[in-house]
Protein: Riboflavin kinase
Amino acid sequence: MAVQPPVRVQGQVVQGFGRGSKELGIPTANFSEEVIERLPTAMDTGIYYGWARIDQGDIYKMVMSVGWNPYYKNEKKSMETHIIHDFDEDFYGSWLRVIVSGYIRPEENYNCLDDLIHAIRNDIATAERELESPSQLLLKTDAFLTDPVDTNQS
Structure:
């Protein structure tokens, strides 16, 4: 990761490819292309971790894929956030704020869906562990997440 964390990103949750929940059993919240285009140019593709908040809800740990998802051969770059919490319903249209605070690994391709799911589960475990450090826990209280939502920013 060439860019130094933390990276703060926000925007409306949009419909993604529909694979997270259905194929992988790991639901994701997706940002629009406009939000993805505003990422720092020095931010490498790969798997990241950090903190997420939907609207004015609780702040949760998250793991995020930024890139082309080689297993699925995406033609458009995506930014898919898995919030480490079980939600009762989708939150399309909600305002998502994330602080990307660490890098796990580069994007990889996989021979089968089970290998991809296994890698994602390992990424989630890594994120949960890393986010327990004092410096990471401090970011959970960052004003970007705790202040009221300002949907005029992005």
